[in-house]
Amino acid sequence: MTLSGAASGNVPNKSQSAVVAIIGGGVSGAATAFHLANAAATAAPTIAAPQIIVFEPRENLGKGLAYDTAEPAHRINVPAARMSLLSDDPEHFLRWIAEHAATAGDGDALRPDGALFPRRSVFGNYVNAMLQPLIASGAIEHRRTPVSHVLRDDARWLIIDGDGTETWADIVVIATSHPPPVAPGQLQAVLKDHPRFVPDPTRSGALAAIRPLDRVLVVGNGLTSADVIAALALKGHEGPITAISRRGLRSRGHAAVAQDPAGDLLAQPAFTALTLLKNIRAEIRQAALEGRTWHSVIDQVRAQGQALWQILPLVERQRIVRHLRPFWDVHRFRVAPQVEAALDAAIAQGRLEILSGSVAASRIEADAIHCTLRLRRSSATVEKTYDAVVVTTGPGHGGILASQPFLAELAQSGYLELDPTGLGLSCTRNSEAIGPVAGVTPSLLIAGPLARGTFGELMGLPQVTDHAVFVAEAIAKCLQTHTLQTAQNPL
Predict the structure, then answer these.
(1) Is residue 409 scored above 50 in pLDDT?
(2) How far apart are the first and last CA of the chain?
(3) Which residues have C-beta within 8 Å of that of residue 379, sequence separation ≥ 6?
(4) Which of 43, 62, 458, 465 is the right S-S partner for 128, CB 3.0 to 4.6 Å?
């Protein structure tokens, strides 16, 4: 929808200074604002600093869905020494922890090998702390409200937030998170009113209704599943747990000894999904001969991931998403050692079984949930009864455009569309949004994991930080153009 399609009688005067609106204040949005504000502070005096506004309903910036958690079992899944908001200073977070005694009282954070795996909330606190001086100085404005509408008016954008306030912006950055998981099959319809059906375990207190001896079905078997099982264990849950997913793949842990990335997948780049898979397997075999594990090779694939992805034709990217993504996810997204220990203990005690299959049917009798499980590569089904069901199937990528009203509106007006890989929103290699009607819109940018269909590896913190720097640089170039235009055509 453009402005002409909306009630526009109460439009404020347009500001002469460039305004950058960032929608979403999780790590991606906060990091983009942080790097843009710092770039503006060191820019030439002739380039006016932009007004940076971050729309984020949460109290603090930088936490988002991943790090806004008080659950003590939720930990960062890579060592703190590899987490930083500064690409050129990878140990910045580690030093911040030491300076602020941020893991005091958490004796399990430090592992025997010296690696530090603090709770996820600690990293959220770190990012927020980095932004607070910029907020205090006015370089960044935090608007604690969701965005309802984003409307196009000639060369600018009109943003209407949840309070009804109208804000003009020259550049809009979409840095929202993926939508919550979608319950498979008819689970949602059958169980939606059950007191122990948990369709989104990322919500605060989502697991509170699960009792210590409840029989629990966890649908999905990735990082979120591992977090759920570890969180239940920490709460004293002792009942049996079934974790079921299509392939029954459990997230892997970290190498016993830290290793540097190894191999070079770009030396002879692959142009098909099959060739890339063969190259990775060959590197893993070579690593084994040299006394290293697969972890070092997968770390190298991560480091070279964006280049490898962009070499592949679209049809090959789609094949990877369709056939190889589950295998990549369980090796790339590793669980923290504390979480891995909780899973291992549950398996050793006979409380946790991991199945490959799907939920074929479910029904409720009294308070019990009866499920028919269809096992993979078998015509057999298994009947099991549970007291609680938790959905951990990962983000509902297909529902991105419907997840927030302003996204649906931008899609309807032709400014946004889903990426053909199904991983996020369509954008150029400059992170500019692509729409079916508008085509490329240089003043509408996609930051963070929603751009991964174009950029490939864009889920790990180092990649998110690098992409935030990239988007901030793209904005700075746009602002230079804006400054020239303003100088030539003053209002």
Answers:
(1) yes
(2) 26
(3) none
(4) 62
Task: Specify the pairing of strand 432-435 against strand 241-245.
Answer: unpaired
Please give the pLDDT value at position 491.
47
Q: Which secondary-structure segment (H or E) carries 276? A: helix 273-289
pLDDT in tens, 299-348: 999 889 889 999 999 999 999 999 998 898 889 888 999 999 999 999 99
* Two structure tokens written together for 302: 């991560």
Answer yes or no: are the C-beta atoms of 417 and 398 closer than 8 Å.
Answer: no
User: For the residues of 75-132, what is the DSSP string, one character each?
Assistant: B-SS-GGG--S-TT-TTHHHHHHHHHTTTTT-TTSB-TTS-B--BHHHHHHHHHHHHH
Q: Is the pLDDT of residue 476 over 60?
A: yes
Strand partners, 434: 440
Q: What is the DSSP letter of 448?
A: S
What is 422-438 written as a DSSP string? SSSB-B-TT-EEEETTT
- Span 133-148, average pLDDT: 96
Beta bridge partners of 355: 244
Tokens at residue 177, please?
């998170």
Per-residue pLDDT of 42-87, as tens digits, reads 766 656 789 999 999 999 999 887 888 888 889 998 899 988 999 8
The dihedral region occupied by 362, where left means phi > 0, alpha psi between -120 and 50, and beta the remainder, is: beta
